[in-house]
Amino acid sequence: MKSQYTIMHLGGSLVIPTISDTVGIDIAYLKKLRIFLLSQLKKKKKFIIVIGGGKTARVYQKSAARVVNIHEYDLDWIGIHATRLNAHLLRTIFEKEAYPVVIDHDPSREEVEMLKSSNKNLFFASGWKPGWSTDYIAVELARKFGSKEVIIAKDIPFVYDSDPRKNKKAKPIKELTWKEYGKLIPARWTPGLSTPVDPVATKLAEKLKIEAKILNGKDISNMQKAIQGKTFKGTLIS
């Protein structure tokens, strides 16, 4: 039986693509995202959206590290608080529609049942604790809410055979297994690591046999196709 919930990881860099003297929040994108989600909520669709830390987390992490040597544990906490800020931004934009509290910790079975029985169909989640990336949290929420897939919406359209930011000849991959994907990324999670799906989430998704649809979150119509189970532009990892 297919889960009622669409579990989505929304890359923080979609919401905040740049950081300068003024925080570069993409207002136009947030407006498009709001229109899309409202249209889906009217159709009684249910969403759990985990938001990443994006540029906010990385700038704060790098800034702290330039002052003193920082332990990975504390770098992780900076990233977690960045995700919480981003999650509250989104929850505020959907103040009438969304569950009033951000899922900012690992919910117990009783809490999950309480969320399921809520009259809200839109939930936002942030980072939880050090060592657990927001990719991992999206996969974990898929498990808790009975979904066999996650939508990974970031600022890249595909998984590539090498880093497209460093190699202009990097080739997109449309479909691969978790084992194949694991060979393309670092074996170890570090705070601020930027990959389509990070190592800890990769291992959990492979164990749980959960599929991931990697796509560019800026393309709302393509994201809708992925959610509806239609052919989409992106990468399927299974």
| Oligomer state of the chains in this structure | single chain
Number of strands: 11
What do we call the CATH homologous superfamily?
Answer: Acetylglutamate kinase-like
Enter the CATH topology name: Carbamate kinase
Mean pLDDT across all residues, rounded? 92
Strand residue content? 15-25%
User: How many angstroms does the end-to-end distance come to?
Assistant: 18 Å
**Morphology call:** globular
Largest sheet: 7 strands, mixed
Give Rg in angstroms.
17 Å
**CATH architectural grouping:** 3-Layer(aba) Sandwich
Please state how the strands of the largest beta sheet are arranged side by side.
Answer: 5-4-1-6-10-11-9
Stretches where pLDDT is under 50 for at least 5 consecutive residues are: none
Helix and strand succession?
EHEEHEHHHEHEEEEHHEHE
Can you identify the CATH class? Alpha Beta
Secondary-structure-based class equals alpha/beta
Helix content: 40-55%
Counted up, domains total 1
